[in-house]
Amino acid sequence: MANVFVAIGAVACLFALLAALLVPDFLAGALEATRDADPALGGAGASTLWTVMAGGFFACSFTWLIIDRLRRIFLAVNQGRAFELANVGRLRTIGASLAGLEISQLVIKAIAPLDGGYRFELDVGAWLGVLIVFMLAEVFRQGAGMRDDVEATV
C-alpha cells in the first residue's frame, strides 16, 4: 500500500516539474508560494525550484524501486525460494537505489541550501548500508550457486 502513495508522489513531482518547465505562470506562482511559506527560501530562483522538484521525483522513484524490490524478495522468501538469482538482481537494484537517494540528497542540498549556505555532510551510516546491501547481494548469489549445486547432485 505504501508503494501506491510513493508512486503518487513521484507522479505529482513529475507533473509539477513539467508544469514549471512548460508554463511560466505556474513557475511564478510556485516561487511566490515558496517565498510566502518559508522566508529562508526568499532568494530561491527558478533553477532551485526545478532542482528540488526533480530531486523529489527521483527520490520518490528510488523509494518506489526499493519498496517494490523488497516486496518481491519477501514473496520469494515466503515461497521458499530465498536463494534465487532474481533476488540477487533485486538486491543490487535496492543498493543502487539507496545510492541514488543519497546522491540526489547531496545534489539538492548543494543547489538549494535552506540555511543560506552549503555544508557538505556525508551520511556514513547510509553509505555503509549501501555497501551492506551490495555485499548481501553477493551472499545471495553464492547461495543460489550452492543451491543449484545441491539440486544437481540429488
Describe this structure in words.
It is a single chain. Helices cover 81% and strands 0% of the residues. The chain has five helices and no strands. The protein has helices spanning 2-22, 24-37, 46-78, 85-111, 124-153.
Q: Which residue ranges are poorly predicted, with pLDDT under 50 across at least 5 consecutive positions?
A: none
Q: Spell out the helices and strands N to C.
A: HHHHH
**What's the alpha carbon Rg, rounded to whole Å?**
20 Å
Largest sheet: none
> Would you tell me the structural class of the helices and strands?
mainly alpha
Q: How many strands? A: 0
Count of helical stretches: 5
**Helix fraction?**
over 70%
Average pLDDT works out at 80
Beta-strand content bin: under 5%
Taking the alpha carbons of the first and last residues, their distance comes to: 41 Å
The rough form would be described as: elongated
Question: Topology of this protein?
Answer:
Blueprint: H1 2-22, H2 24-37, H3 46-78, H4 85-111, H5 124-153
Helix pairs in contact: 1-2, 1-3, 3-4, 4-5
Summary, kept brief:
This protein is mostly helical. The chain is built from five helices and no strands. It starts with a helix and ends with a helix.
